[in-house]
């Protein structure tokens, strides 16, 4: 009886807490804290930035994995219309010979950031006659994102980027979010299905895995989320390796053998 009463009290406390949070959120909206990017709510939140992060969670899934000799990006194109020409849907972009990026969220926002990163990389190459390091590109992109969280008349970028590449000390993988924060990862995922994909990555990722193993893991993780919607046409992937430091995109024929292996496993 005592245990039952404790469970009932606990459930009541949780219900009350949820109700309080809902009321507090409604109060914030009524008072206009979610209308201005420069205005903090009383509990220290920038609500417009939080909304931008929710937009990212609704975007199509993108996975990044650092393996023994390089780094891989694999993404879901999520084609919404059968009449769309699939080859024209771009979800992976080359920043420089040794650097690649993908995104989740508002892809038009991503395109602006990628264009900026490409220009930055070319300016560095012309000025210093050497390729730019991955972290410099990440910091430049995040600086612009951060400015858009504190400037009136702007809105946050509603997109997260995975920026990957190989520079002087090996393969790198960074994730940037709408706040302008960045983190370096061994393996990570952005977009919808983040929970399911991350669970697979945490269980099966190994630092010494080969490129083939990394591709298999990324496809398996994506399959875990997409299930019956899992189609070869939706997948796009690219990698950069330490040997030649060159951007390489996987062809449909290369992806097909890994795709079929996961489907039949």
Can you walk me through this structure?
Helix 5 (194-204) runs antiparallel to helix 6 and helix 6 (211-226) packs across helix 7 (252-264). The chain has a 5-stranded antiparallel beta sheet, with helices on one face. Strands 3-4-5-6-7 form a 5-stranded antiparallel beta sheet. The chain starts with a helix and ends with a helix. It has helices at 2-30, 47-57, 107-128, 134-147, 194-204, 211-226, 252-264; strands spanning 62-67, 70-76, 92-96, 99-105, 159-167, 170-176, 182-184, 187-190, 235-241, 247-249. The radius of gyration is 21 Å and the shape is globular. The chain folds into 2 domains: 2-51, no CATH class; 59-264, Glutamine Phosphoribosylpyrophosphate, subunit 1, domain 1, CATH 3.60.20. It has 7 helices and 10 strands. The chain is an alpha+beta fold and 265 residues long.
Q: Structural class per helix/strand content?
A: alpha+beta
The biggest sheet, with number of strands, parallel, antiparallel or mixed sense and barrel status, is: 5 strands, antiparallel
Uncertain regions spanning at least 5 consecutive residues: none
Total separate domains: 2
Proportion in helices = 40-55%
End-to-end C-alpha gap: 48 Å
Q: H/E order of the elements?
A: HHEEEEHHEEEEHHEEH
**Can you tell me the overall shape?**
globular
List keywords for this structure.
globular, Glutamine Phosphoribosylpyrophosphate, subunit 1, domain 1, 265 residues, 2 domains
Q: What would a concise description of this structure say?
A:
This protein is α+β, with helices and mostly antiparallel strands and 265 residues long. It has helices at residues 2-30, 47-57, 107-128, 134-147, 194-204, 211-226, 252-264, and strands spanning 62-67, 70-76, 92-96, 99-105, 159-167, 170-176, 182-184, 187-190, 235-241, 247-249.
């Amino acid at each position: 009886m005592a245990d039952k009463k404790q469970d009932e009290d606990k459930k009541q406390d949780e219900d009350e807490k949820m109700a309080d949070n809902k009321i507090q959120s409604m109060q914030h909206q009524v008072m206009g804290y979610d209308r201005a990017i420069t205005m903090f709510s009383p509990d220290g939140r920038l609500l417009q930035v939080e909304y931008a992060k929710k937009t990212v969670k609704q975007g199509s899934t993108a996975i990044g994995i650092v393996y023994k000799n390089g780094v891989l990006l694999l993404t879901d194109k999520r084609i919404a219309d059968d009449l769309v020409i699939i080859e024209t849907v771009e979800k992976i972009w080359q920043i420089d010979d040794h650097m690649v990026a993908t995104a989740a969220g508002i892809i038009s926002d991503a395109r602006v950031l990628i264009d900026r990163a490409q220009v930055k990389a070319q300016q560095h190459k012309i000025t210093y006659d050497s390729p730019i390091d991955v972290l410099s590109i990440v910091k430049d992109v995040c600086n612009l994102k951060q400015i858009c969280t504190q400037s009136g008349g702007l809105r946050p970028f509603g997109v997260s980027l995975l920026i990957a590449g190989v520079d002087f000390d090996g393969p790198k993988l960074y994730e940037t979010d709408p706040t302008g924060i960045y983190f370096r990862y061994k393996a990570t995922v952005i977009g919808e299905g983040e929970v399911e994909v991350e669970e697979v990555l945490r269980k099966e990722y190994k630092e010494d895995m080969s490129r083939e193993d990394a591709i298999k893991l990324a496809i398996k993780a994506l399959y875990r989320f997409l299930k019956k919607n899992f189609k070869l046409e939706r997948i796009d992937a690219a990698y950069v390796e330490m040997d030649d430091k060159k951007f390489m995109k996987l062809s449909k024929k290369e992806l097909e053998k890994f795709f079929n292996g996961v489907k039949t496993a």
